[in-house]
Write a structure and sequence with these properties.
Number of helices: 0
Largest sheet: 2 strands, antiparallel
Structural class: mainly beta
Order of helices and strands: EEEEEEEEEE
Number of strands: 10
Distance between the termini: 11 Å
Shape: elongated
Strand content: 25-35%
């Protein structure tokens, strides 16, 4: 809801988030770029991450293991998959952190 209150400029009545058509429904886009909300980001903080320069990097092959031992009281099999991965940025200077973006 706080994002919906943001304006394009100080004193402007025009919302920063896009308004879809005549219904007036606000979508989470700024100039056509999608905006994602996460509880992992502190309130009042926003990150600008260029999609073309962000990658998911797999550090090692995925391993899959099964075990029938833990569930011998019924017909179940435990399956575990482990994948070592991280985010990588081709140009780290392009990632921007904005502070105090909420009114």
């Amino acid at each position: 809801m706080a994002l919906a209150k943001l304006r394009k400029a100080a004193g402007s009545l025009e919302p920063l988030l896009a308004v879809d058509g005549p219904t007036g429904v606000t979508s989470r886009t700024v100039l056509g770029v999608p905006v994602y909300v996460s509880p992992a980001v502190a309130a009042g903080t926003a990150w600008g991450v260029p999609r073309a320069l962000a990658f998911l990097v797999i550090r090692s092959d995925t391993t899959i293991e099964t075990s029938k031992h833990a569930f011998f009281t019924s017909d179940r099999v435990a399956v575990r998959a482990v994948m070592r991965c991280a985010f990588g940025f081709a140009h780290p200077q392009a990632v921007v952190k904005l502070h105090n973006v909420l009114p």
